[in-house]
Amino acid sequence: xxxxxxxxxxxxxxxxxxxxxxxxxxRVAGTDAQPxxxxxxxxxxxxxxxxxxxxxxxxxxxxxxxxxxxGAAAYRQIQDVLDPLCLVGVNINxxxxxxxxxxxxxxxxxQHGWRVFLVKVHNEAGVTAAPAVSxxxxxxxxxKSTAAKKPEVTIPPQEVENRWLxxxxxxxxxxxxxxxxxxxxxxxxxxxxxxxxxxxxxxxLQGHLRxxxxxxx
Length: 217
Fold this sequence. Notes:
The structure is a single chain. The protein is α+β, with helices and mostly antiparallel strands. The protein has one domain (about 5-140, about 160-215). It contains four helices and seven strands, in the order αααβββαββββ. The chain has helices spanning about 35-50, 55-65, 70-80, 155-160, and strands at about 85-90, 100, 115-125, 165-170, 185-195, 200-205, 215. Helix 1 runs parallel beside helix 3 and helix 2 runs antiparallel to helix 3. It is elongated. Residues about 1-20 and about 200-215 have low confidence and may be disordered.
């Protein structure tokens, strides 16, 4: 499948509340763990910089995984630590077709405060383009003035209450904008809401060809 023909994704998470549980994400097997260790080290650093550090137990378990000499064991141990923090898992198969599975992280947002999640990416195609994220509920509430005497109304009043979300992938250092091309990596995503009654109901990530997007009801 050529890049230009990539399908837009939408994953529907059948959540009835913010406490809804998900199945564990599919495991990714590997033996060359050094590149993965370097990538998740940067992820752990980013979580700390964003004010959402790993717990002491998670940090201890990750340090043990990073010190593990056996590559296959390190792959397993890293996923043991980071998978529970994932909002979704994304699989890009060798033909660059993409599917998404809901992750086990609690689907809760904080009013006027950023919540940080991880996205697990199983990249069988070695894709290295930059993912992005957007949402119909994260559309802007304001448009730049045109200085017209009678400006056109481009944001209907009934739409304002639906635009309560802000969401973004973190690509600041020590992270990078593009996917690494590794078989397994983790991305950092943040979301904030102005309404505490909203939880993630639908989540889609279109990683490498079109815009990624989130749909939140």
